[in-house]
Amino acid sequence: MSAREEILARIRRAVDGAPEVEIRRAYRTTSEVADLVRLFAERVDDYRAIVHVIPAAEVPARIAGLVGDRRMIIPDGLPREWAAGVPAGLHDADGVVTGCAVAIAETGTIVLDSGPGQGSRAQTLVPDYHLCVVRAGQIVPGVPEAVARLDPARPLTWISGPSATSDIELNRVEGVHGPRTLEVIISS
């Protein structure tokens, strides 16, 4: 008998004959947020990301202005009008332009699922700069609503601000596990 099997056998003997207990779970599944775009923009800004809230018609020009002459990864499925910059490969890219699967207002989190226009996990974590376009209709109030929209079989990347960590002395270091700079365009 393995150690695991022995431990499980002990647990079974210990609870043998104990009455069944119903565990009630009343998880919150919806949230009320008056202005999803405003709250999401505030929370993303709290994470030290750069945020632009603009009308949808201005998105292509804003992307072109932000990208400039950077060499950018342009994932398959990205709207053509957003594909500004000089296309680049993974190892010579300055950044990546993506859309997203969903965004969460309460947490300021962007979720990528490698769908059209979102790129692969490597394409969004290797470059030092990530420009993500979030459409207002993709913003949900809370995590439960986001999870309900996502396919758990897809590779999910949850982004809450630029990549950062702190060392033992609490010195913040950015860009360790992903892009050092996150810029978000919220198109309303």
UniProtKB/TrEMBL annotation:
Coiled-coil zones: none
InterPro entries: FTHF_cligase-like_sf, LUD_dom, NagB/RpiA_transferase-like
SUPFAM superfamilies: NagB/RpiA/CoA transferase-like
Domain LUD: 92-186
Pfam family membership, one: LUD_dom
PANTHER family: LACTATE UTILIZATION PROTEIN C
Protein name per the record: LUD domain-containing protein
Organism: Nonomuraea cavernae
Lineage: Bacteria, Bacillati, Actinomycetota, Actinomycetes, Streptosporangiales
